[in-house]
Amino acid sequence: MPVPVPQQRSVPAAETSHGDLTLLVIEDDPAGTTITVPELSAAAGTRVRIRTARNLTEAARLLTDDVDCILLDLALPLTGGGAGPGTATADAGTSGTGTGTADSGSLPEPVSERAGELAALTHVLGIAPQHAVLALTAQDDTELAAEAVRVGAQDYLFRGELDARVLSRAIRYAVERKRADTAQHQLTESRLRAQENARLERGLLPTPLLDGSGLSFAARYRPGRSRALLGGDFYDVVRTPDGTVHAMIGDVCGHGPDEAALGVELRIAWRALTLAGLCGDELLSTLQQVLEHERQSEEIFATLCTVDIAPDGRRAGLCLAGHPAPLLARHGLPARLLPYQDGGPALGLLPRARWPRRQVELGGAWSLMMYTDGLIEGRVGTGGSERLGQDGMVAMVNIRLEQGLAGEELLEAAVAEVRELNGGELTDDVAVLLLGRDPERIRRWGGSAPRSHPGSPVVARPLGAQRPPL
Q1: Is 56:76 a contact under the CB 8 Å cutoff?
Q2: Distance CA 300, CA 259 (A)
Q3: What is the four-CA torsion angle of 279, 285, 287, 293, rounded to 10 degrees?
Q4: Tens digits of residue pLDDT in 286-338
Q5: pTM (2 d.p.)
Q6: Phi and psi of 321, rounded to 5°?
Q7: Inter-residue long-range contacts of 60-67, CB under 8 Å, 24+ positions, other chains counted
Q8: Which of 164, 258, 291, 352 is the most exposed place for a label (fewest CB within 10 A)?
Q9: Which residue has the higher pLDDT, 346 or 12?
């Protein structure tokens, strides 16, 4: 089909490109000179397959996925034009109105004062949003050419300057520019989705409700999934009207978004049930019903540890559902694991399971560390053949306590050491929280610590400096 070529010139080797390209020419000019593939290949160093269409209807039929670039004559009418043997006539409506319809869809609304002159281009951009487009126009109509690029074409060419070298370079440039624009658009969409997901996940992280308890609180949270803020681990702390402080930490098996969503559901359900007055076996039985209803498959289960601390802060009730026992450090004494022999199974394993509540003496001044198994399953030793385990964690925490660390500093040092012993990032989710009671500080602050004081009841920060406080 006609594309005028006044003169053929050779192209330097540096300007040659590799790979075949397919050009769809949409022009209705029977008087023009036809470009042939051998002429363009020999002159420009690029093998270009040319398809021709005399109108938009024929162009829509020839527009397949292997087309790399479209060369469109801006003077092409939307109706009629060049109907010859083997061609079809477009019925896209009246040129310049922007309101007619074509076989391939409706024309967009006019976007400028020259929308009528760009109606064919607007139509092509609508039916070929993933293809590079070159606009072909008269040399004396620079304003129309520039407007075509503003509307969406990758570049423009003048009929009087068109030759094999210029056409070859324009095709390659248009194709690469379209690829870059598409990649940038996808990157922008990906960033927006990531920002929305981050805002959503931050909103799902817990806010401890400890006002009036006098207990200090700190937490660290690190999901195993890359670029995620939430994993299958979950925790929460609330104080009920009777003065009892309830703390919980749990772990849904798996690391995907479904497990993270289930963890959020279980945490919210735990808070609602706790504030409604449920505790111990009754609460865990109800949580198991929630898990069984919400999980994706019957193989999904969750471990859980709950602690309810009496209003005087000296004793607590402990329930374990297949979860590691908390670590208790009393003032002046080494840290030790709380009893775990009477624990029940993980939630979701047995239909009529029971979880006994064990009474634990805390004492006057103490720190209670609750954690998920991601903290103790990191590798240690030469070659990483062994796991840290609970005994290794207890020994590590005791060393940090002897160094005088407490609160957030203790958690920060413990998690950093676990990662260092593992030789890099941990693959499992990690959640760890620390509750503490200091009678001297409670007396100093009249029964509770202020929010701005270090170690106050609402201080919590997930792992990673970029993540905001909970």
Answers
A1: yes
A2: 9
A3: -160
A4: 999 999 999 989 999 999 999 999 999 999 999 999 999 999 999 888 999 99
A5: 0.58
A6: -120, 80
A7: 60/102, 60/103, 60/104, 60/127, 61/88, 62/24, 63/24, 63/127, 63/128, 63/131, 66/22, 67/22, 67/23, 67/24, 67/128, 67/131
A8: 352
A9: 346
* Res 197: pLDDT: 65
Task: Report long-range pairs for 237-240 (Cβ below 8 Å, ≥24 apart).
Answer: 237/206, 237/208, 237/209, 237/210, 237/433, 237/435, 238/208, 238/209, 238/210, 238/271, 238/274, 238/275, 239/209, 239/210, 239/211, 239/212, 239/213, 240/274, 240/275, 240/277
Q: With 70 as the cut, is the pLDDT of residue 79 above it?
A: no
Residue whose token pair is 């772990």: 251
- Banded model confidence at residue 283, pLDDT cuts 50, 70, 90: very high
What is the Cα 381 distance to its own chain's centre? 35
| 455 three-state secondary structure | coil
To which residue do tokens 């929010």 refer?
Answer: 451
Least confident of 22-26, 90-94, 172-176: 90-94
